[in-house]
Amino acid sequence: MEELYFTATEQGIRIDKFLSETMPEVSRSYIQKLIREGAATSDGKTVKPNYKLDAGEVVRVFLPEPEMPDILPEDIPLDILYEDNDILILNKPKGMVVHPAPGHYSGTIVNAVMYHCQNELSGINGVLRPGIVHRIDMDTTGSLVVCKNDAAHQALALQLKEHKITRKYHAIIVGNLKADKGTVDASIGRHPIDRKRMSVHSRNGRHAVTHYRVLERFGNYSYIECELETGRTHQIRVHMSSIGHPILGDTVYGPQKCPFNLTGQTLHAKILGIIHPSTGEYMEFDAPIPEYFLKILAQLRRR
């Protein structure tokens, strides 16, 4: 069990709201459950989730150890772009989760690579995320690197931290961008109200930069390339939505209705460039645009 202490700096904030902002990785419903069960207290006393804190009150939280499910290898076909003794480069399909999480303990990339690589995966991220250095969203397709050993994982994680990995995405966005090129430089953090979303208006935002350029224009839609300078959760989706051009099909950050038969956003991790962890050679991988994406582009070109 993990014991945490936090001091309220704002007068009159609800304890459940304070903790959800302080611990964005924990859902608000779970925080309320902890408070009701007495696992979260204020100045040593048991309170209710709607209890309003005074500035300076100390909140203590007991976080129980999460129950670890058995993550099993599964014989799931993988689209492999490249493989050697250190790394595996995959072309992730649409609708596939990268690593196990509540509600998705099977059918993930991790389950598939555990089967493909047998015992050859880095263990740095623990049971749930072996080999995974970075992730892409369930409905985003394209290039993903998996590490087979800890040395490779540490090398790639450092490249990611120092912004030395090339990551270029292709997307179809709603609207016609005024300029052919541009940059969105806006911090991203957890949305202040909807904790499942990210926002550029978060008080706890982290520095985020996305560069974009227009590849084609189709009246009320644009086909663009986005290059990540940083790698925040939902970064391209949040940044493009923040400038009034959400990604087509993204019902979280864009319109609820889409004129195309789509499941999720039209976002594809096309180019991935890394320095090989053993050879020191720069290598670049190009994941082909998926069929569904090409069909939409063909429809837009016929308009």
General description of the model:
The protein is of the alpha+beta class. The chain has helices at residues 15-22, 28-36, 109-117, 150-161, 235-242, 291-302, and strands spanning 2-7, 40-42, 45-46, 58-63, 80-83, 87-92, 141-147, 166-174, 181-185, 189-190, 198-199, 209-217, 221-228, 267-275, 282-286. It is globular, with a radius of gyration of 21 Å.
Keywords:
27% strand; globular; 303 residues; alpha+beta
Could you write a compact summary of the structure shown?
19% of the residues lie in helices and 27% in strands. It is α+β, with helices and mostly antiparallel strands and 303 residues long. A hairpin with a 7-residue loop joins β10 and β11.
- Rg over alpha carbons: 21 Å
Distance between the termini: 59 Å
Order of helices and strands: EHHEEEEEHEHEEEEEEHEEH
Number of discrete helical segments: 6
Spans of at least 5 consecutive residues whose pLDDT stays below 50 are none
Strand content: 25-35%
Number of DSSP strand runs: 15
Shape: globular
SS content category: alpha+beta
> Portion of residues in helices?
10-25%
The main pleated sheet reads as: 9 strands, mixed
Task: Round the mean pLDDT to the nearest integer and report it.
Answer: 92
